[in-house]
Amino acid sequence: MCWRGGREVFRGICFAVASGEGLLLTGRNGAGKSSLLRMIAGLLRIAGGRLELTGGAIDREIAEQAHYLGHLDAFKPSLTVGENLSFWIDYLGGQGHPQLALEAVGLGSLTHLPAGYLSAGQKRRLSLARLVAIDRPLWLLDEPTSALDATAQTMLLDLMRKHLAAGGLVVAATHQQLDLQNVRELRLGAAA
Q: Is the CB of residue 180 less than 8 Å from the CB of residue 164?
């Protein structure tokens, strides 16, 4: 169950996602897609029910085993592109190499540029670089294709396919179809 702003957003949602599977959260604006992702990520209190990551590290919370990419791209504009990614690698305990991750998302040549100079799509790709640089089994993606051009959307879908093929899980809130295999849809109904 989810309450936000003094109103019930949803209740009675039940779902399971197995290793190598994706779950697309769909529905109208206000249906609770972002709220559900934030609950899984540990950023929003669960009003009722439970969430469980079976097969995950038992000594770690779900949030510690997940990447959450929300609407806002979390970076410091005054730090360079490379410094921003290095910060996240250090903060989240990753072992990835920043340059390789930046190249994977098409930002390899912008490593020394202050992140504040990036376009909206480049900022999104900088956030996506965390998925490459830091290994986590669960990806929680809120409108992951937002601000991405067609080439970057293809790159993101390739990253998602590789993650699923390696046994990872993807839960993505989206308003558009994502060309992925082994993906189910959970349609959330909007409150009036």
A: yes
Q: What average pLDDT does range 68-92 have in this prediction? A: 92
Q: For residue 192, what pLDDT band results from cuts at 50, 70 and 90?
A: very low
Chain centroid, CA 88 distance in Å: 14
47 and 3 Cβ atoms separated by less than 8 Å:
yes
Q: How many helices (H) and strands (E) does the chain have?
A: 5, 7
Average pLDDT of the chain, as a whole number: 90
Strand intervals (E) in 39-119: 66-69
Exposure b/e, 115-144, CB count within 10 A at least 16 = b: beebeebbbbbbbbbbbbbbebbbbbbbbb
Output the pLDDT for position 191. Answer: 47
- Locate the domains of the chain by residue range: 19-48+65-72+79-187
Look up the CATH number of domain 19-48+65-72+79-187: 3.40.50.300
DSSP, collapsed to helix, strand or coil, labels residue 183 as: strand
82 near 98, Cβ under 8 Å? yes
Q: Is the pTM of this model over 0.85?
A: yes
> What's the rounded Cα separation, in Å, for the pair 27 and 187?
5
CB 17 within 8 A of CB 180: no
